[in-house]
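Researcher: Next sequence.
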Amino acid sequence: MQNTKFLVKLTRVGAHGPQYLLEIGKKAIKTTSERKLALLMGKYTAQDAIDCIQSARCVGELVPIKISAESAPKNCCALLTL
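Model: Next structure:
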């Protein structure tokens, strides 16, 4: 059985490549260009993150990732290890 988790992919105006959400803090967010380090989360949490981050300069999108149920994290957020 497989579960689906989501990454938040950010495309910024003037940036060379896509960025992925790494960490959400109270004052700022951290992004990374390495997909393997991106934060995995459920669909509703990822959608909320996109709604908070999205602006005129930054467009967010959900990227679905299939993971096996045996290796699925017990909590809602985990680091992607490919």
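Model: Helices lie at 43-53. The chain has one domain: 2-79.
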